[in-house]
């Protein structure tokens, strides 16, 4: 994988010393990925440190897109890219979508509005590109330390994300309240 400064890092180094939640996203322009990563950004570093877990997002574009995507989503944790999709392929992540009735609880936009926003970001960005193969699916893993695999999920389509609190719980991290609405408390 490649970091935001263009340095290559062996994939195994990301989880060699400690447990890691590794989320592979379809594309940095994909609205469902953007909204999922916006919610991943809400996971407090203190929760991860308390559980001795690293949270990592991996995209499939050029490393030049990492910093702007982190800025756009507010994502403060580790992020890398796999521009040739070597790890995506080695893990069996598919291209294309299979129909399903799943709906990610982290995606707020409907398909039409989300697609329009993604296309607009592609057209108005500094380099007009799609920041990866738009047909590539992602997935989520919990790995390490060492060669341990604790959880493995391959997305079937753009909405087949693992709910973040499910993956946090499996990694031993406290859950996060993702609601943006105020709750009425009965007094």
Automatic annotation (TrEMBL):
Pfam families (UniProt xref): AhpC-TSA_2
Domain of life: Eukaryota
InterPro entries membership: PXL2A/B/C, Thioredoxin-like_sf
Name the record gives this protein: AAED1 protein
Organism: Rhinopomastus cyanomelas (Common scimitarbill)
